[in-house]
Every structure is written in structure tokens, then in C-alpha cells.
Amino acid sequence: MTATAETGFRSEITDGVLRLTFDRPKRMNAIDLPTMTAFAAAVREGGADPRVRTIVITGSGRAFCTGADLAAAALNPADPKVVMDAATSLIRAITSAPVPVIAAVNGPAAGVGVSIALAADLTYAASSAYFLLSFVNIGLMPDGGASALVPAAIGRARAAEMALLGERVSAEDAERFGLVSRTVADDAFDALVDSVVDRTSKAPRRALELTKRALNAATLDRLDAALELENTGQAELLTGDDFKEGAMAMLQKRAPHFK
């Protein structure tokens, strides 16, 4: 067993399984730019490591990943293009990994956290989890491929409700809609994930790689186009007055007043 630590997350390889755990529990595992960049590199390196047969992504504490860390962004604003390129790189690392990627959604997934969960090949949710495309609430649009990943899972109508209304989807509804593979009670969650990991880590690696490639080609054929549109649109919105007001309102815990 080997264990390493990176900015904002933990990385551990045990018996052919690479576990990547968002580890900013005081921030509900909101991720800043350095974390996003390092996380993408860890996924790519894991996929290239012949020892790794499965990658598991989860969060520490009560949350899976609640999206971008607005407080960190306010203190250290980055070029919007750099931010969007980092998000795109992470999603592409997950979808192109040659081994199964399992998202163990142990708690709330919001913003790009939803994209990370849905970019995985197998997504499981604890009953206390929920999914929230919160972008519109702060003057932004979905990114990280969410405009392709969400409708690919649940269809355009329900995806539009999530994206345009910014309403949360419970773990139970996520299973009913087809957003996740399965939702289970919190006390049974770890056992379920472990059972799936046991199966994928013992399956023939090349067969799984080619199966994943075929599934993605059939269902995520519009992902690249969606990422390009998101990157252009979000780069514009990140410099707009609506985002400034939305972010400030969220940090101040008040209702935003958009123009």
C-alpha cells in the first residue's frame, strides 16, 4: 500500500485501486484551481499506471464536492480561461482513463462536483447526498461538460430543470431519473462501493477499457462540443456583473440582486 498527499485531496493505491479523496471538509470539499489541476494530473497518472485497475473518487467529511471555492477565487482571482481549461482537463482525464472510474458520492455534489460525478463510469450515491447545478444562482452557466453529461443521463427536460432553475435533486430522485447507477442508505454505502470495486479491479483491464471507450462514443459524442461552448460562455460570465453579485451574495449568505 502506498499513500501520497496532494493539495486539497488525498491519493492512495491499495491492491490495484487508486482512491482519490477530496479533502477540504471545512469547505465542503469545494475545490480551488491548484486542487483541480493536481487532481486531473492524479487521474491521468493513475490511468497510465499498470498497477491501477480501478479509480475511486469520493470526498471526506459530509460532502462529495461542492464545486469551485468562491472564497478562494475572490482572494486569488485567476484568468477565466485558465480556470475553464483546468475544469476541462479534469473531466477529460476521467472520461479518457483506460480503467473504470467510480464516483462514490458520499454527500452533496454541486457545480463542477456534479460534472466530476457524472464523468465517472459508475456513479453511486449515499441517501444523504444531493446534486445541484447551482451555476445560474450565481450568474454562471454549467461547466465541466455538465451540459452534455446531465442530459446524456436523464434527458433534456430534466436536465433543463436542473440547469435553468438551479434546483437540487435528491439522491433518491437521482436514482429514479437515471442520474446515478444506484442510491443506497448511508450505512450501506461503503459496502456497496467496495463490492463494485472488488469486481472491477478483478475484471480484465483491456476488456473494460474498450467497453468504456465504446459506451462513451455512443453516449458522450457531444461532450467536446459542449465543453467548447461552456468554456467560451463561462469565460464571458466569469467577468460579468451578475457573477460578481451572485458570488458576493453567496459569500454574504443573502439573496442576489441581478440587473
TrEMBL record:
Residues of the signal peptide: none
Pfam family, one: ECH_1
Taxonomic superkingdom: Bacteria
EC number of this enzyme: 4.2.1.17
Gene Ontology MF: a single term: enoyl-CoA hydratase activity
Record key words, sorted: Lyase
Class of the enzyme per the UniProt entry, highest EC level: lyase
Family according to the record: Belongs to the enoyl-CoA hydratase/isomerase family.
Name used for this protein in its record: Putative enoyl-CoA hydratase
